[in-house]
Amino acid sequence: MTRLPAAAGVPLMLIAGAAVALQSRVNGVLAQEIGEGLRAGALAAVVSFGSGLAVISLVVFGLPAGRASSARLREGLRQGRIRWPELLGGLSGAYFVASQGIAVGVIGVALFIVAFTAGQSLGSLAVDHLGYGPGGRQHASPARVVAAVFAVAGVLVKAFDQISTASVAVTVGLAALALGAGAAQALQHALNGRVSAVGGPLVTTANNFAVGTLALLVFLAVSFGVDGRIDGLPASPELYLGGVFGITFIVIAAITVQQYGVLVLGLCMIAGQVVTAELVEILDPDVEVGVLGLVGGGLAVTGVLVALALRPRDVTPR
Prior knowledge:
- By secondary structure, the chain is mainly alpha-helical.
- The protein has one domain (24-310).
- The chain contains 10 helices and 2 strands, in the order H-E-H-H-H-H-H-H-H-E-H-H.
- Helix 8 (201-223) packs across helix 9 (242-283).
- The longest helix has 42 residues, at 242-283.
- The protein is globular and about 55 Å long.
- The termini are close together.
- Mean pLDDT is 82; it is low at 312-318.
- One of its GO terms (cellular component) is plasma membrane.
- The chain crosses the membrane at residues 41-66, 87-119, 139-160, 167-187, 207-226, 238-257, 289-310.
């Protein structure tokens, strides 16, 4: 297992969270530039995951360390140390990236991320309690409950603020989509931790992008049965960085989840996600950030800080 120095773990997990927020922003704008409707969001997701797959494939198959990582995973499958269903974490990633393209352009990156983090908190509670993570079963504790309660409260406050600019049904529906994506990503981190413990983070990331890209291609094909349009791909190169951001947080998560557990990883990523998402909207001249919006983000981060303070005997680096 790859172990990190104590001083490096938390900053890396915060960076992973920031990468999630930046990817959400990029993919949301990319979908708006591509066209309208479900097919625009689906194509944006395929572009994001496909570009990530291309980059990580070059690394895995072009470097000796990557080829060795792939060989270890194949051997682990042959020996039964990893099971085929545990390779499907990329389905959660596909759901998340697709939800970015569908929801961010409507409800904004900050509400999307706060709803997503609420799903992460609830999902991490369930995943650790059921023992799906690489560290085995970890029962619910005050720290875990506090993080989930504060995150859900943050969603409710931010959603109430957002309703003033969008319909109730649309806001609630898209926030629920993001919440589901967060819960699914908690399971993704757990499965990736298991795969990474056998094959390493490089092949784990490549596997995620391969599985996710295949799923998104199916989603794109289905999306053409729904009203919408595709105007073409934009020329701005920064809109194609979604795959790079995805590689960043998947690699970091695959390494750190083995050492810190699903919940601690989730808490640190929540802080990085929410702070970055709020900064993105504050710095965007086209977005009006209300007081309630800031309060909602603050609640999510406060929950992280309180939960970390309450967990001295909860989860320690392994």
